[in-house]
Design goal:
Radius of gyration: 17 Å
Shape: globular
Number of domains: 1
Largest sheet: 6 strands, mixed
Number of helices: 4
Oligomer: single chain
Order of helices and strands: HEHEHEEEHEEEE
Distance between the termini: 28 Å
Number of strands: 9
CATH topology: Rossmann fold
Bound molecules: 1-O-pyrophosphono-5-O-phosphono-alpha-D-ribofuranose
């Protein structure tokens, strides 16, 4: 059943053009990131903050590769209507725990223009964390509008529309276990 489902995407007439990052490379890289992060946050009070929806699978895998104590909390955001691309977002679900005095690791699936992460970093810093670092699975650096320090980066990818491993096209394809390029 599972094989048939995936074969349908990769062989037939559909919206998926090709696999960009296969599952084994993804998991290998996530585990490398987990090891480095675990080293850097040894003996620190680590608060992982994942931005919904796109980062939920990456965050879940990354968390299982951490060998330090860490909490996980989620934020959900949406662009203000009429201001798409401005980087101004509305928080539709806020964190449940305080991050004041704690070490925040902001987890994103992809950094594109950088506007969303830049805004999130600004509002999270206002909450007085001990530190804040950004971890992004994918960096579409060619599209960057704002210079952002990505402390932990999975892959630099070209300017193509990607889906899978949490990322969507019209809310579909989040369940693909690999990163795929959408047909242009
Ligand atoms: C994606 C991603 C980032 C943002 C990056 O979210 O998760 O939050 O876009 O883009 P930027 O660098 O140009 O600001 P998306 O809007 O696709 O929402 P989703 O995660 O709920 O699918």
């Amino acid at each position: 059943m599972k094989e048939n489902f995936h074969k349908k995407f990769l062989t037939g007439e559909n919206e998926i053009a090709k696999v960009l990052i296969p599952q084994n490379r993804l998991l290998q890289r996530v585990s490398e990131l987990g090891a480095v992060i675990s080293q850097d946050y040894e003996d620190k009070d680590l608060a992982v903050v994942a931005i919904l929806k796109g980062s939920f699978i990456f965050a879940a895998d990354l968390l299982r590769d951490l060998t330090v104590n860490a909490t996980i909390d989620f934020m959900s955001i949406s662009s203000y209507a009429g201001q798409p691309g401005s980087g101004v977002v509305r928080i539709t679900k806020d964190l449940e725990e305080s991050v004041t005095g704690r070490h925040i690791l902001l987890v994103e699936d992809i950094i594109d223009t950088g506007l969303t992460a830049n805004y999130l970093i600004r509002i999270l810093k206002e909450r007085g964390p001990a530190s804040l670092s950004l971890c992004a699975l994918l960096d579409k650096s060619a599209r960057r509008l704002i210079d952002l320090p990505i402390a932990y980066r999975g892959f630099d990818i070209p300017d193509v529309f990607v889906v899978g491993y949490g990322m969507d096209f019209q809310q579909k394809y989040r369940n693909l276990p690999y990163i795929a390029v959408l047909r242009a």
